[in-house]
Amino acid sequence: MEERIRDAAFWTRLKADMKEAAYGLGIDDIGVASPEPFTELKGRLIRHRELGYESGFEAKDIDRRTDPSLLFDEPLSIIAISVGYPSKLHNPPKSEPGARRGILSRSSWGEDYHTVLRSRLARLEAWLRERVPELRAESMVDTGELSDRAVAERAGIGWSGKNSFIMNRKHGTWIYLAEMITNLPLEPDSPIEDSCGSCTKCIDACPTGALVGPGQLNAQRCVSFVTQTKEMVSDELMRKIGNRLYGCDTCQIVCPVNKGINVTRHPEFKADPEQVKPLLEPLLDISNREYKERYGSNSSSWRGKKPIQRNAVIALGNFREKGAVPALVKVLRDDPRPVLRGTAAWSLGRIGGEAALQALKDALGTEEDPEARDVIGRAAAAAAAAAEALEASEALEAQEAGQEPASPHS
Which domains does the chain have, with CATH numbers? Predict the structure, then answer.
């Protein structure tokens, strides 16, 4: 290996051959980054933490997130890869009254991308080891300590967009990223020039204002992050979630670079429309076994079924789906999880009506969890106010029409 390191021509050929072989290995783009510390990123991460913008899912040690030498003994290069995924759903089922549906973000369509990209990295490692038996490598997919996006940007996979995604002209932002730290002295690639220009469509379209600036994301307000939490969600953010069950694609959908891009060459990411745009009500009482069978191989399953169920309850409230009241009342009355009971109360308050109001009043007399009880109380007050407003409006309409208002007891 020592003698080979001095053979610059060998490494130049190896890198060129690797890039040529990438497509056949199931990799859409490949680049090489230097293993130097990510000094600028470290400063941004420190400020990010100070501002309270972290999601809580990140690795805690900022030094290990920004210095490859703390993860790998004497690194000489980092190989970055990207694999594209589809942005369009073929023949999607309709969401309509009585059959309301939620939606999973495109990054969770098909097989779990962590599994797929690990297999791609394994293929690449085997290819390299055939040519360099002394290879040492450490692969990472999303859950590694390094920032996939920072490595990909340095390796020339794409530029960092204002929506904080890595993007390029071939595949837009519809790409999964991963990397491999190695002991191979490969020449680094050059970063791609930022092409976002003056466009701010992603920032303007963000449902919650989580994009606080170009490339700056407050994860605490990002709908994608919120859908993955297990706690009670604020009234404001529940309204913003809409019918999203996992993730959010808004800032990618509005991006002009993404227009017309739909990568379909990887069969693992082909979406099952009924899985990624499922009916909401059946999710409310789905068993653990059913959930694992249906979603276990999907990247959305990493947090378990609770967030998906909570988000389904929220979606029914945002749809104001009156037909779902009996199912929501059942959750409010019988579910053992306070977060689900409180969220069901919120949705019933949004939907309103006599049955919802009565269920909320009954729940106030039995609920013992303080947080859930608080939500139930506010939901009951909202439903009661809506009922009074409706009654007053009907009385006014009747008066204007010269009719006697109907007795509430008739």
Answer: 225-248+267-400 (1.25.10)
